[in-house]
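Morning!

As promised:
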Amino acid sequence: MAINAKDVEWVEETPMNFWEATYLPAVFDGLLTTGAHVANNRTVTEQYPEQQPKLPTHYRGVHRLNRDDKGRVKCVACMMCATACPAHCIEIVAQDAPKDDPHWADRDKFPKSFVIDELKCIYCGMCEEACPVDSIELTHIYDLVGLTRQEMMFDKEKLLSVFDQTKDSGIDPIRTHKGKLGHASDFTDLHTLGPATTVRADDRSAKAVSSGVISN
Amino acid sequence: MATVLVNDKSVEIGPSEKLNCIQAAQRAGVEIPSYCWHPEMSVVASCRMCLVEVGDKKPDGTIAMQPKLFPGCQTPVKDGTVIVSNSEKVKAAQKATLEYLLLNHPLDCPVCDQAGECGLQDYSYEFGRGYSRLQEPKNIKPDKDYIGDQITLFTDRCIMCTRCVRFTREISGTAELQVISRGTHEEIDIFPGDPCNNKLAGNVVDLCPVGALCSKDFLYEQRVWWLKTKNSVCPGCSTGCSITVDQNEDVLYRLKPRVNEQAQGHFMCDEGRFGWKYVQSEKRLKRPEQRANGQVVSRDWETIFPAIRNAIRDSLIRSPNKFAAVISPWATVEEAYLLATYAKKLSPHAKLAIGPVRVVGEDDLYPKDVHGKPEPKTKFTIRAEKCPNRRGVEAVMQQMQGSVIEFSSILEGVSRGEIEALYILGGDPEGWISDSDATKLDKLKLLVVQDLLESAASRKAHFVLPGAAWAEKDGTFVNHNGLAQAIHRGVRGPEEARPDGRILMELAEKKGMFHAPTLRKEIAGVVPALAALSVGELGELGVKLEQAAAVEKPQLQTV
Amino acid sequence: MQFINDFLSGQWNWIVGMLPEAAKPYAMPGLVIFIVLNVTLGACSYLILLERKLSAWMQDRLGPNRVGPMGLLQPVADMLKLLLKEDVIPGHVNKFLFVLAPGISVFTTFLAFAVVPFGPVPKGLTAGDGQFPFIIAPGIDLGVVFIFAIGSLAVYGIILGGWASNNKYSALGCLRASAQVVSYEIPLGMSVVGLALLCGTMSIEKILLFQAERGIYGWNIWYQPLACVIFFIAAMAEAQRLPFDLAECEQELIGGWHTEYSAMKWGLFFLAEYTHVITISFLTSILFFGGWHLPFIAETTSNYSGVWMVKVGVLLAKVSVFIVVIQMLRWTIPRFRFDQLMSLAWLCLIPLAMVNIVMVMVVKQFELNEWWLLPGSAAIFLAAGLMGTQSTKPFARRVAAPIETPGHGGHGHAHAH
C-alpha cells in the first residue's frame, strides 16, 4: 500500500553555513577527532583469554538448576519456564514424588527429566522470572562450547552440576530466599533487593506497605 | 410467562420451568460464581460463593429487596424476582468467601494439575481480593493417594463443596465417598476398604472445582494450557457420549465429557474415559503392506492403491458375484458410504455386510441402589452394544442393498466358496475375529484389510491398509438413539496411517479431498434415512435423524 | 669499493656487464619491473596491516596483535590463508569471465605504475645502459594520459566480475561502480589539464623535474591547490575507497561486485584496490608536491654520494603521508549516498575544475604572474562554498514539500465557488 501523502511529514534540510558548505573544514575536523584517538593511546580492548571480562551482575549465561537444603533438585516441574520460554528450548517430564520415601515426603512433583537446549536458548531470562521456586537461574558462565548438538542439550544432572560449580563462585549467589513453595501465610519477608537483582528503591514492589501486598 | 430482573435486565422464564437464580442469571448473560452447585445434583448451598441480593418487584412497581444475601443456587425465581449480583455488597461477600476458601488452600498452583482450569484460580482472579490477611500457618492435611484405582486426593486443596460426595450418592448411587470429621478437620474420604472404583468414578475428577481430586492417568502428564481441544464422540459404546479430545503435539492425553442432553448429559463412564489407550498402541498398523505368498511386496501407498484396484478387478472378471465388503460398526457414516458406493460401483452384485457388533452383557444403568440394582429413574446408561455407529452403517447398507448382512454369514459364504474376494473395513479396537474364524478366510483369493490394530485377519491379508482411530479422523457417528454427531480429527495417526475416509476416496478415485461436511450433504441426498445430515456441519450437539424409525429393526438376511 | 661507489651513484653497470650482449637492453627494465612488482605487493599487504592498526587505534582498540611481534606477521598469515582457502566458483557464474575479472583488475592497476617515477629519473637514458632508471617506461611524453587511459580500463574488471557473478548484488554493485568511475574520470582528467598547461608537458617525469628545478616555491600545490583537492577526491572515487565505496557497501549490497568471490581471486581485487591507493599517493605527491624534491636535502643540484637513496626516501615519505591520509579518511567520513556522489562529481567537482582551467588559461594567455593562481583558486573555492549556502540557487536539487493549495485537501471546498 502506498503511503498516504497526508501521513508524510516534510522536514526541510537545515541550511548550511559557509564553512559547512565548503565541506573541507568538516573533513579536517573529522580527521582531527580520529587523529586524536590514534594519538591518545588509550585502549579499551580486553585481551580475552588472558584477561577475563568483568561481567555485569545481571549477565545472563548458562542456566543452572538449584538444589534445595536437602540437596534435591529444587524444581517442582511446574513447567512455567517451558511455558514462558519464547524459544521453546525447555523440555520437562514431570513425575510424582515417591511418597513412601521420607526424603521426598514434603514434595508432590519433581522433574523426571529436565532438558534445556542451550543452542535454541536465547538467554532472555524469562524462565528465571517465571520460576515460582527460584530453581532455574542464569549464571555468569558465558564460554559455552561443545562439539556436538547433543552435548549442548543440558539435562537435569548437568544443570545441577552447573549449580554445584557456581554456587560458591561469588558472582552467582543463590538468589532465592525460600527453600520450598511458599504459602500465602508465610509470605512474611519479601526480599526484593537481592545481590544480583537490582530493584530500585523507588520500585513499588520494594515500597510495599506489608509484604506481598502491592498498593497502588 | 414469568419475568425476572437480573442486574436491571429482564429475562423471560417459561411457565413450567423451575430455575434458580444462577440459571436465570445465566440466561441474562450474567455469571454468578458457584462451586457446590451442579445442575444434575441436589443443592446444598455450602460454598456460599453464589451469594446474591434477591428481591421482589411488586405489581405496583416498587421493589422490595431482602435485607440479607441469599445463595443463588438455593433460591428459586418466580415472576417479579429481582437478582442483583454486581452490587458492592455482593462483591464484598464474594471477596470474603474466596478469602475464606483460600484460608487453608495451599498456594501450590505450580505443582497442581488443575492450574489453568481451576475454579478457585478463575474466581479469585475475577472476584477475589488478591491477598490474604491470614497470619497463622495453614492447616495441612495428609494426601490420600488411593481414593480409587484412577483417583488420588490432595486433601489440603479441597474446599468442601461435596460435589464428589453427592455424585457418588445421586448419580452413580454407589456412595463410596463421604465427608469425615467436622469443621476445620473436614475431609473427603472413602469408607475403609471400599475404594471409589465404580464405572463412573472418573467424573468426580471433572466435578472437583479445584485440584483436590486428580486423575492418576493424567496426573502430571501435561499442563492444561498446553492442551488443544477438539469436540468428538466417545466410541466406547452406542450411547455416543459427547466428549472433548485433549492433545498436545499429536499426543492424546485425556478425554473429558461435554454437556449434551440429547446424548448422555453431563458425564461419561470410565470405560470410555480411560479406554482410548489403544490409539497409542504398539500394535497399531503403521504402514500399508502388499503381500504375495507371505512376502511383503510393497510398503508404498502410491503403488498399493493401483494394485488393489487391479486385484479386485481381476477377481471380478474371474467371478463377478463373489466380491463382498465388510464394514465395521466402528466406521463412520462417511466411510461406510464411500466403501458401499465403491463396492456397488465395481459390481452391483457385491455383498455388503456389517462387521461383528460387539455386545457385552447388558446395559448398565445408573444410579444403583444399595443392592447394586438400578433405580427406577435412570440418569446414566453404559450400553452393552460397544460400537459407536451400528445404526449409521446399517442405514447406509439398507439403502445400498435393501438389507443388512451379518458378518457370520459372510464367513459361511467364504467357507462355502461363494465369496472369493473380501474387503474388510475394520476399526474395532478389540479382537473382532477369532483365530478359528480367521482360518476360514484362508480360502479367499483376495483379502484386503483396512484396520486399526493388527489382527488374525490382517496377518492373512493380501493387502493391509493402516487406518485411523476415531480421534484421528473426521466423520459422523449415529448413536443408539439416532443422534448423529460429528467427530473431529484431534491428532495425527502413527507413521503412514491415514484417515480411512481419505484411503477410500483415493482407492475409489473419487474426486476431491475428504471433507466430512461436503460428504454428509452428498450422503443426505442418497440415503433418505440420513437426510438430516444435509446440514453439513452438525454443530456441537449433533442432529437427530428424523427417519430413524425406518432402520430401527434391520431385516437380517443370510447369503 | 668500486661496487659501493657504483651502487651509490646509481650506475649499476656491473649488473649489465654480467649479461650477454643481446640481453643488455632488457636488464635494467627487467630489474625495475622485478623490484616494483615485489615492493608493491609487499607494501600492499603491509598497508592492510597499517590500515587495520590505524582503524583500531582510532576506535581505541588494539588491532591485530597475535601473529608475530605486534602483529607484524599478520599479512603473511592473511596471505597464506587467502592462498590456502578453498577457491569457490559458484555453479551459476560465467566461469571464463569470472576468473578473468580479478586478473584484469590487478593487471590494469599495475600497468598504470609503468609511467610513475619512483626516484630521480636520470636524463638521457639509453637502452643497455647501466643507469638505474627509477621508472619502468622512461621517456613517455603522455604519461598522464596513459595513467587515465589505463585507470579507466580498471572498471572493466569490476563490470566483468559483477556481471559474470550472475548475482543481483554483484550486478548492482558493478553498475554503480561503472557510473561512478565514468563520472569521476572527468574531474580527474580536468584537474590535471591545468598542470599540463602550467608545466607545458604531459610527461610525469617532466612535471616532476619542472617543479624540482624551481625549488620549494615551484611545487604545483602553490599554483593549483584547488586542482589538487579535486584530483585527490576524484582519485579516491576512482579507487572505490571509502567514502566512495558505494559499489561494495556491505549494508546494501553485501560485497557488491565481489560478493561471489573468495580466496585468492577476492584477494586479487583487494590487491588491486591497494595498488590503486599507492598509485594515487605517488601521483599526488609527484604532480603537486614536487615528487622527490625537498629543499636543501634533495634538490636537482644535490650531488652527494647516494643522493638517489635520499630522493627515493623523500618521495616514499610523501607517499606514505598520503596513504595514511587516505586510510584515515576511510575511517573518518561516512559513506556518500549515491545521489550525493553523483551531484558531487557533476555539480561541484567538474564546474570547479572547469573554472580552474579557465583561470590557468587566463594567466598563461595574458602572461600574468603565476602567483595570481593561489588567491584565484582560493576565491573559486570560497565562491563555491558561498553558493552552497544559498538554498534558493538555481541548481539546487533539493526535494521540496508539495505546495498545499487551499481547497485541495477537503472535498467540500471544491464546490464552494
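The two ends of chain C are 106 Å apart (CA to CA).

Hope this helps with the figure draft.
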